[in-house]
Task: structure prediction
Amino acid sequence: MDFKQKMLRDDALKGKTIVVTGGGSGLGKSMSTYFLELGANVVITSRDIEKLKNTAAQLEEETRGSVGDSAGKVLPVQCDVRNYEEVEAMVQASVEEFGTVDVLLNNAAGNFISPTERLSANAFDTIIDIVLKGSKNCTLAFGKHWIDKKEKNKSILNIVTTYAWTGSAYVVPSATAKAGVLAMTRSLAVEWAKYGIRSNAIAPGPFPTKGAWDRLLPGDLKEKFDLAKKVPLKRVGEHQELANLAAYLVSDFSAYVNGEVITIDGGEWLKGAGQFNLLEAIPEEMWDQLEAMIKSKKRN
Ligand code: HXC
Ligand code: NAP
Result:
């Protein structure tokens, strides 16, 4: 067994319908693939319907190839999460196709690196609108629907980042928006528990995807900043290990997990945070000498 393998039993998500925003590419596509293999029906949404249709056809073929007829069905739905009317139409389209939706996975995001003072007001708004307003729009639309229909055993999973709580220079709109999504996760975990709706989040460290890497490490920055070096485990994430965690959090196995944010980053953010972590640079053989020096100061 290793972390690249599929973790849950074959039928773990059988009977569930999961909406994945930004499900046509990157991490959303990888999570959708695993949900389908576990028997869930998946609605993939984004702005680009042609991309979604291609992804849907590819995912249905691949997952039927890997698990046969137990694989779920895919519905591609165009929806810009910034627009509440489009989100309401996406809720309706999902319900019409599958009867009900059990899980909302807020995964869609926008981001780019920039000194904040270079940003236009519209540039800042664009990121806030996709990440915070988009997650709010989908959460509100599905929450209203579930509460109105008195449907229970529902779950919202939000993809945030570790800089939602540390903050980060040069991606300030994204950090600001993800912090808001994290606050919404924890707030609704309490408020909507009485309706049978759980809210949780995942904070991934670096998981290579074209969407993120082209915008966060453009040109030769990819070679200059090896993100794996910032991770104590000295590697970036594998999509399947994120998919394993997401599948657990949207499954009924996690029925008592509510209001949690689970970090999956190989220890990356803590490495940046701990005041003395830089002592890792001290060679093993110097520790005898340092210990002697410290002990000699004991009675001063
Ligand atoms: C400064 C920029 C800019 C840049 C765009 N703008 N790119 N400003 N630097 N690099 C400005 C534009 O000039 C414009 O402002 C405003 O932003 C909106 O730009 P549009 O191109 O019109 O927006 P839109 O077509 O809606 O595209 C949204 C986008 C784009 C966010 C700009 O990159 C996108 O579609 N991204 C989706 C995918 C994505 O970003 N994935 C990465 C997620 S990674 P003006 O004033 O000129 O009108 C992630 C990882 C986190 O979140 C952690 C990793 C470790
Ligand atoms: P990605 O491939 O660029 O995915 C972003 C998705 O969001 C795309 O499918 C995009 O589809 C969709 N999207 C963007 N704007 C949208 C809008 N207005 N309406 C609807 N959909 C929209 O990036 P990723 O790396 O997979 O990121 C997925 C999630 O993981 C994001 O929440 C990101 O913040 C988070 N994350 C990623 C990493 C990482 O290392 N990769 C680390 C931490 C957190 P369209 O362009 O077709 O609309």
Remarks:
- The pocket of hexanoyl-coenzyme A (ligand 1) is lined by residues 109-112, 114, 119-120, 122-123, 126-127, 161, 174, 206, 211-212, 215-216 (CB under 6 Å).
- The longest helix spans residues 121-149.
